[in-house]
Specification:
The chain is an alpha+beta fold. The chain is built from eight helices and 20 strands. A hairpin with a 5-residue loop joins strand 5 and strand 6. The longest helix has 13 residues.
């Protein structure tokens, strides 16, 4: 009778849980316009157009895009959120009114990925959720923690919108046909009582009771949480077609696209940017040829987008015979730390 009472109490809470799906998602942690003119009549002399046609938005983006390639880079999106980019090829495309990617402004460009393998630790993934996705005071979930159990993700936290009720989900990973990440929720607990079986018995799925419309990048499909990584991660945004998502070496791994066979631009740990126009500190380069290299190739290139100037000044630069720039930098985690006050 005692267990039945708990189960009944949990069933009453299910009707109030309108954010479960968002949570599962929280769990987790990238052509032209043709114009024609009517033919001139025989009595008229053809008019020759002398104006230059306005490039389409796509043509403008392509002309301003910078080719990018990264290898073995620990990329810090923020102080507490870093992703290991094992390999990446793609483009840096300026956003909004920006005519070029500006490294001092992470929101000035996005990375459009052709192929990449990117992994995130459970701790970093939880940090993304707590400090970015669900950072607002009225966010439905708080105090999320994420652990990996075999090939499953376990997420714990509190349903802030319902009086901080403790919850717990377990889900498996796959991808959707349109290149997003699918988390299939297999187990659900509320107030430490399993409720997924009761939901199945009543014919209720998470999509019936969860509202994720206010969380960008999250959708629900029955008992599945659908994640759009281009909207979940902090700037710079990563756009790409996800072809695989899995657990590997106790990390959350995302594969974008398929290998394109592009030759490596450099050796070792690096970030290379070629072609187009780019601003790097006070340096603006046309037909860009900039490579950031690791002073210590024994571990990943540790890059912090917010502190890259500090990393550069502790290293040195070289100019190539074709006036390209090679910046040899110190890893972010090896920079001297200011003494605590």
């Amino acid at each position: 009778m005692k267990f039945t009472g708990k189960l009944f109490a949990a069933s009453l809470e299910i009707g109030r849980l309108t954010g479960w799906r968002t949570f599962g998602l929280g769990v987790i942690v990238l052509l032209g316009v043709a114009c024609s003119h009517p033919p001139a009549s025989p009595a008229e002399k053809p008019v020759v157009e002398t104006t230059t046609p306005t490039p389409s938005p796509v043509a403008k983006e392509q002309s301003h895009a910078v080719q990018g390639q990264m290898h073995n880079v620990l990329f810090h999106f923020s102080e507490g959120v870093a992703a290991h980019i094992e390999t990446l090829t793609g483009e840096l495309v300026p956003l909004g009114t920006n005519s070029m990617p500006v490294f001092d402004d992470k929101s000035s460009f996005e990375v459009r990925v052709t192929h990449a393998k990117i992994s995130v630790s459970p701790v970093a993934l939880a940090s993304v959720m707590n400090t970015y996705v669900f950072a607002k005071p009225d966010a439905p979930f708080k105090n999320l923690s994420i652990t990996i159990e075999g090939d499953r993700l376990r997420v714990k936290g509190r349903l802030h919108s319902k009086g901080d009720i403790p919850f717990e989900n377990v889900g498996s990973l796959s991808t959707t046909s349109d290149g997003r990440i699918r988390i299939h929720i297999e187990k659900v607990k509320a107030l430490r009582v399993p409720v997924k079986g009761l939901m199945n018995l009543l014919g209720i799925d998470l999509a019936n009771i969860l509202n994720t419309s206010k969380v960008p990048g999250i959708d629900m499909d029955k008992d599945d949480v659908i994640l759009d990584m281009s909207k979940l991660l902090p700037p710079p945004r990563i756009q790409g077609f996800v072809t695989a998502a899995r657990i590997e070496n106790n990390e959350f791994v995302t594969i974008f696209g398929t290998p394109d066979g592009a030759p490596a631009m450099e050796k070792g740990n690096y970030m290379s940017f070629r072609g187009g126009r780019i601003r790097f500190g006070k340096l603006t380069m046309d037909d860009a040829d900039i490579t950031v290299l690791d002073l210590d190739p024994g571990d990943p290139l540790d890059w912090n987008q917010d502190r890259f100037k500090d990393q550069i000044v502790t290293g040195y630069c070289k100019i190539t015979p074709t006036f390209g720039l090679r910046a040899y930098i110190k890893d972010y985690n090896k920079l001297p730390r200011a003494p605590k006050k």
